[in-house]
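discrete fold record:
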Amino acid sequence: MYGLRNRLFFINKFYPATNTMEGITILEQDEQQNLTKKIVANKGVYEDRLWKFYHSITYNFNLNGQIIEEPLYLKEEIMTIPEGPKDFLDQRQLPESMTIAQLDTYIWKLSKSGATNVIRNLKIDLYQKFTSPFISLIIILLGIPFSLMLHKRATGLSSIGISIIVGFLYYILDAICIAIGRGGVLSPFVAASLSHVTGLIFSLCLINSMS
């Protein structure tokens, strides 16, 4: 998971009952997302609002990604990590399974982490939670013009076929917008909403032309 202070956590096992994690790797980055420090520990235990790491090794890196100084080994070490067990437990969830409030809180926590790409992708996931409910409505609106065509002309099968193709193209446009947004070309809000706005305008224009 991505944490505060430009840290990226990799944890093999986490035991909520004992507030213990095993197989810990922490990567620290600077504002340009260059690796500056790596911490590896066998185990971490949360006691008295502090993380105590056991058998930890700390590596420091220069801007070229090369290790500088001798790695520091400690049998026990008190870590200044602001994240508590609840933070690690919450982030075991995928963004898709988070509520809007949970995802918004996670993005806020990461806002100063320097993880630009991750924050951008999470914002797209957040905006999708707002726009997704409109998909069914837009599909219905896109189908109305072709339903009217069924009543006006004897082109039942062709109208149904065209409506399926239009709906398919709508989903493709949505996927393309999301992909471009994750690549940083579109802002998260535009990436999550462009296809829906386009589909809405297109469907209303079709309905207006049929009336």
In short: The chain has a mean pLDDT of 84. The helical segments are 85-90, 100-110, 116-131, 134-152, 156-182, 188-210. Residues 2-92 form one domain. The two ends are 53 Å apart (CA to CA).
